[in-house]
Design brief:
By secondary structure, the protein is α/β, with parallel strands linked by helices. The chain has one domain: Aldolase class I (TIM Barrel, Alpha-Beta Barrel), CATH 3.20.20.70. It is built from 9 helices and 8 strands. It has helices spanning 17-29, 44-60, 71-77, 91-98, 112-120, 145-154, 170-175, 185-188, 193-202, and strands at 6-10, 34-37, 64-68, 81-84, 103-109, 125-128, 159-162, 180-183. An 8-stranded parallel β-barrel has the order 1-2-3-4-5-6-7-8, surrounded by 7 helices. Strand 3 (64-68), helix 3 (71-77) and strand 4 (81-84) form a beta-alpha-beta unit. Helix 2 (44-60) crosses helix 3 (71-77).
């Protein structure tokens, strides 16, 4: 799981086809080694096609593709793993379905108790947020930098920070203990995605 560090790019909902692939290519070329495909639509065929195309891109860049909240899609395209939220498939059931070799990440919001439970249940990484106000999820609970620091000291798993993170504020998040910074608008909402990815990636070195 040594790849579980650095810039964690999450695709922008509403981006499809060539636009989606061009955005992903820019993020991966800029140094992201983790890409999450996040699409909540019910268009199964399109989602399968896009996931397969994104996986091929990730393989070209020695990166990992994580599927948001869809065990079947993860299995269909043989992605590297899934990310599950509070209302998604139960961790133990997901592990049984996907096996030991797939990565399972869990959203822990601002709940350390939930994080400890997820770690004990076999999660591979733990996500906390929103660190800053997020345009993607404006009603998201707030997770402080102090919480990140505490999570890093108490939990022996990679920590992801998410929510309102940009290349300009990512350093203090990393310094607080985040092994990965997840970015949606902070990356794909930028005029130059490649440059934003490179700026963020450099912060880890």
């Amino acid at each position: 799981m040594s790849q579980l560090s650095g810039l964690y790019a999450i695709t922008l909902e509403g981006s499809h086809g060539k636009t989606l692939l061009a955005q992903a290519e820019a993020a991966l070329s800029g140094g992201s080694r983790i890409l999450q495909y996040r699409d909540k639509s019910s268009d199964t065929q399109r989602r399968q096609e896009e996931a397969r195309a994104l996986l091929a891109l990730c393989q070209q860049h020695q990166a990992m593709l994580i599927i948001n909240d869809d065990l079947e899609l993860c299995q269909h395209c043989d992605a590297h793993g899934v990310h599950l939220g509070h209302d998604d498939s139960h961790l133990e059931a997901a592990r049984k379905k996907l096996g030991r070799n797939k990565i399972i990440g869990i959203s822990c919001y601002n709940d350390l108790q939930l994080a400890h439970h997820a770690a004990a249940s076999g999660a591979d990484y733990l996500a906390f947020g929103a660190i800053y106000p997020s345009s993607t999820k404006p009603a998201a609970v707030h997770a402080s930098l102090e919480l990140l620091h505490q999570a890093k000291s108490e939990l022996d798993l990679p920590i992801v920070a998410i929510g309102g993170i940009t290349p300009e504020n990512a350093l203090q998040v990393i310094q607080a203990g985040a092994d990965m910074v997840a970015m949606i608008q902070g990356l794909f909402g930028q005029k130059d995605i490649l440059l934003a990815a490179r700026k963020t990636t450099r912060l880890f070195k």
